[in-house]
Each structure stands twice: as C-alpha cells, then as structure tokens.
Amino acid sequence: MNLEKLIEQAKQQCIRREARFTPTREQVFRLLAEKQGAIGAYDLLDELKKTDPAAKPATIYRALDFLSQQGFVHKIESINAFVMCHHFGDCNHPVQLLICDECGHVDEIQSNDFYKSLKEMAVNKGFSISHQIIEAHGRCNNCRE
C-alpha cells in the first residue's frame, strides 16, 4: 500500500476516535510502515534520532504505546519488537503472526476459525479473552529454499 495513503488512513482513524496523531507519532508510524518486518524500539529510536536528535527512549515508547492502542502496530513479545498492521480498520481483530527465525520476516495472518476455537476453549475454562496475539516461529519459504 502507498505510504502516504496509509498515513492518511491512520490520521482519519485518529480523527474518528478523537486521538491526537502528533508529528512524533506520525514519524514513528512512518518509520514502521517503511520497515519490512519487525523492528525493536531502540532501533526505531536510532532512526527517529536522524530527524529528531532530542528523541529519548520515553519518546519512542510513548509513540509505540499510542500506535499499539490504536491498532496500527503489533508488539511481538517473544522478540521484543514491533510490526506494522496493514489492516488496522479493526484494532481489536485477532492476530496470528508467523515469524521467520532466520531473516526476521513477519507475516500477519488472520484466522477467525482459529480465534473462534480458542475463544470457545477459553469460555469452557471460564476465561474471557480480551486480546489475542499468537506468535509462531519457524522458517519462511525464502529461508527454507
């Protein structure tokens, strides 16, 4: 998707939600959107410092928290990194990530059947799921060749 179109889409989402898409948040969004795969917060900070030398770790973490809350990015807990969500119209959608341990490529897949089964199993245990991200590690097609 075109970067400017993606940014405009994010801005419109923020307007509808009455959330502030500040210049710093936009810049971090832009950096994530330009990145193929996942990136760590400190690597993002290094990139941000190229345009904002005063940026601090708190700057990047606040922006990432905001972007995550808006459903624009997903945090990959197992590798402590972030990845862009390119279909952020539904910020509460179930998330399944395929993470290549060799090249770092991340594919987001969405299986409502998987989520339905998980939710059903949770309900049977008396558990209520508020948020779901499933991470699967392995090797992508390019690295298996």
TrEMBL record:
Requisite cofactors: Zn(2+)
GO molecular function, one term: transcription cis-regulatory region binding
Keywords: Cytoplasm, DNA-binding, Iron, Metal-binding, Repressor, Transcription, Transcription regulation, Zinc
Positions bound to Zn(2+): 100, 103, 140, 143
Cofactor binding, per record: Binds 1 zinc ion per subunit.
Any one Pfam family match given in the protein's UniProt record, by short name: FUR
GO cellular component term of the entry, any: cytosol
Subcellular location: Cytoplasm
InterPro entries cross-referenced by the UniProt entry: FUR (IPR002481), Fur_C (IPR043135), WH-like_DNA-bd_sf (IPR036388), WH_DNA-bd_sf (IPR036390)
Superkingdom per UniProt: Bacteria
Gene Ontology biological process terms in this record: negative regulation of DNA-templated transcription; regulation of secondary metabolite biosynthetic process
Statement: the UniProt record of this protein carries the keyword Cytoplasm: yes
Family: Belongs to the Fur family.
Subunit and interaction comment: Homodimer.
Protein name stated in the entry: Ferric uptake regulation protein
Annotated organism of origin: Thalassotalea marina
Taxonomic placement: Bacteria, Pseudomonadati, Pseudomonadota, Gammaproteobacteria, Alteromonadales
